[in-house]
Design brief:
By secondary structure, the protein is mainly α. The chain contains 12 helices and no strands. It is globular and about 60 Å long. The N and C termini lie far apart (51 Å).
């Protein structure tokens, strides 16, 4: 409860409230029943997407010699180890959220820069792999029994599975944005060794505010709408091959 109050009184909490109000004004919650049903079908995708993303960070860091993820119990696909309750609720309700970040210690890496880049890239790569895997699961269901897919139960299951594909594509694309604290910024940082510039630390310090502004004013949507839909369409086309 104390943490909940702390977040509500922080810039993150203010942003979440503003995003919720923006969604309300834009009509996102106009039909509560439809909204609830849609969110329930998205729920597995959100849980799976966040869990595999954070697990991948921890797994790669562990393989590079860092004991921190294992000590902190992050080398598991159990969602309980990766779900931040407030971040999860925010993602479910407002469309923007987060998991519990995996803590790493790059001092254990043989090559720090390449190690940190691999760890950062691992999360988005795992989201992509998950999207591909669930695409083929849906294709397998189509192949085995097209009639089941057309049934009432089958259509619901198929839609839930396709939401897993969609959400993992979204998480992959969103996390590749070169804005701190997202993985894309960490990848760019290590490629170009940006820590040697004094502005890097200021930019990283205010990264959350920059990211919030980009989300609030629709900049992330403008940047990601086309690539997300293109990637999702590419995967869905596999179903008809």
């Amino acid at each position: 409860m104390n943490r909940f109050k702390q977040i509500l009184n922080s810039p993150i909490g203010i942003f979440i409230i503003l995003l919720f109000l923006f969604n309300m004004v834009s009509g996102a919650y106009t039909n509560p029943l439809d909204w609830i049903m849609r969110k329930l079908m998205m729920l597995p995708g959100i849980v799976i997407g966040l869990s595999v993303h954070e697990w991948a960070h921890g797994f790669v860091s562990h393989k590079l010699g860092d004991p921190t993820p294992k000590i902190q119990g992050r080398l598991t696909l159990n969602p309980a180890a990766h779900m931040d309750p407030i971040g999860f609720l925010s993602l479910l309700i407002c469309g923007f959220g987060w998991g519990i970040p995996v803590e790493i210690d790059s001092r254990y890496y043989k090559h720090r820069r390449s190690g940190e880049m691999m760890v950062a890239f691992a999360g988005v790569l795992m989201n992509f792999i998950t999207a591909v895997v669930f695409t083929f699961i849906v294709k397998g269901i189509y192949t085995v029994s097209a009639a089941f897919v057309l049934s009432a139960v089958g259509s619901i299951i198929t839609e839930i599975l396709l939401y897993v594909v969609w959400i993992n594509v979204v998480l992959m694309a969103f996390n590749l944005l070169p804005i701190p604290p997202l993985d894309g910024f960490n990848i760019v940082t290590e490629i170009f060794n940006l820590r040697k510039y004094s502005w890097w630390y200021k930019f990283y310090r205010y990264g959350f505010l920059i990211l919030f502004a980009c989300v609030m004013f629709g900049i992330t949507g403008i940047l990601l709408n086309v690539p997300i839909r293109a990637m999702y369409s590419l995967l869905v086309n596999i179903l008809y091959m």
